[in-house]
Design goal:
Helices cover 19% and strands 28% of the residues. By secondary structure, the protein is of the alpha/beta class. The chain is globular and about 55 Å long. GO terms for molecular function: CoA-transferase activity.
């Protein structure tokens, strides 16, 4: 069977299990694989560990999985726009592992590159460092961080071909490339699906070798805006 699936539900079928670690690309609502998140919600799997920069907002993006209590643990760097995330964390209903944003990105990149651990100065002497090994290099103390490699990764791309090669668009690239490499199975949703061999090789951000399944979003797919910022028009 080829990599292309007719919809998000079929693309996620047969690969989800309770207790898995799922990596999700996106930043806020920008570049999130929302159709694949909806498919995870519909599957009913629970006890998930989800790795993502944040958890969307209330009732959108990963916020949907929080609402249904399918997430047991979040590995994230930011929670400020999601009231339900905050409520569950403070109530002891959700385990949270906070990471500096750059550290989280590098943990996923390292996992995808087969690097089990690396050292960074970020977090030394703070609560982030509790229980983690340290080492001294050139007279400076560095903190050991482990690479992250999950069971399933879900990503959003602007364009992809039928072999799974992906191109991201502007800021929607964000965490998607590093998440795409750091799991046993990566599923991509794309806005535009084109035949294999039609993408400029120099423009490809994620090679198709990393993508196991791909689905094209339907026409009219709504991309949500987390915070709409506008400026006044100049007077006519």
């Amino acid at each position: 069977m080829g990599k292309v699936y007719p919809d998000a539900k079929s693309a996620m079928a047969g690969i989800l299990q309770d207790g898995q670690t799922i990596l999700s690309g996106g930043f806020g609502l920008c570049g999130i694989p929302s159709a694949l998140i909806d498919a995870i919600a519909a599957s009913g799997v629970k006890g998930l560990t989800v790795v993502s920069n944040n958890a969307g907002i209330d009732n959108e993006g990963l916020g949907k999985l929080l609402r249904t209590h399918q997430i047991r643990k979040m590995v994230a760097s930011y929670v400020g726009e999601n009231g339900e995330f905050e409520r569950q964390y403070l109530a002891g209903e959700l385990e949270v592992e906070f990471n500096p944003q750059g550290t989280l990105a590098e943990r996923c990149r390292a996992g995808g590159a087969g690097i089990p651990a690396f050292y960074t100065k970020t977090g030394v002497g703070t609560a982030i460092a509790e229980g983690k090994p340290t080492a001294v290099f050139d007279g400076e103390t560095y903190l050991q961080e482990r690479g992250i490699f999950g069971d399933v990764a879900i990503v959003h791309a602007w364009k992809g071909d039928t072999e799974g090669n992906l191109i991201y668009r502007h800021t929607a690239r964000n965490f998607n490339p590093v998440m795409a490499t750091a799991a046993k199975i990566t599923v991509a949703q794309v806005e535009h699906l084109v035949p294999a061999g039609t993408l400029d090789p120099d423009s490809i951000h994620t090679p198709g070798i990393f993508i196991k399944r791909i689905v094209e979003l339907p026409q009219g797919y709504e991309k949500l805006i987390e915070k709409r910022t506008t400026r006044k028009r100049d007077a006519a």
